Amino acid sequence: MSYTLRYMKIVGFIIVGCTFCILLSSTCINMYARALTPAVGATLSLEDLGLSLSSPEDHSAAAEAVHQVVMDHGVCFLRRGDNNNFEDDEDDKALVSFARHFGELEKPHPIYSSDPTSPLAVVANDAEHPPDGAEWHTDCSWSEAPPFASVLWPRLLPAT
Q1: Where in this chain does the record put each TauD/TfdA-like domain (predicted)?
Q2: What is the C-alpha separation between 142 and 109, in angstroms, rounded?
Q3: Exposed (0-12), middle (13-18) or buried (19+): which is 111, by Cβ within 10 Å?
Q4: In the chain, how many domains are there?
Q5: Which of 33, 54, 65, 68 holds its CA 20 to 30 A away from the CA of 100?
Q6: Is it the case that residue 28 has pLDDT exceeding 60?
């Protein structure tokens, strides 16, 4: 099973998923949030909230919404309808712009980044990128101020 993810670390926040949503109110957002388990995690759909990834004017309100869902559910998994794969560099740029609403983006470890000016790292599991590890871990725990979170989103997902 192969996968490819784009990956960023944010100092001070957590989000996992594909894209974003908008804050109407805590109650209204939680009407759209679908809990994954009783303990942790909820999904949100971009289409349910009438937003577009390519619309930077939605980013600030969307960041507030994601923050609310994370505070209520621990992890926010964001969906983009049936096509959850990000297709191109424009999606990368939009997600970097969106992620900056949560705080400073940390530079990735050099083994994952081909561009030293980009906060993006590619994590993959294919013929060119064998698995890097199978154990749970935490990033940068040695740092004085380690990242609070990571942003992950798929460029390629295995069929389900």
Answers
A1: 34-153
A2: 14
A3: exposed
A4: 1
A5: 33
A6: no
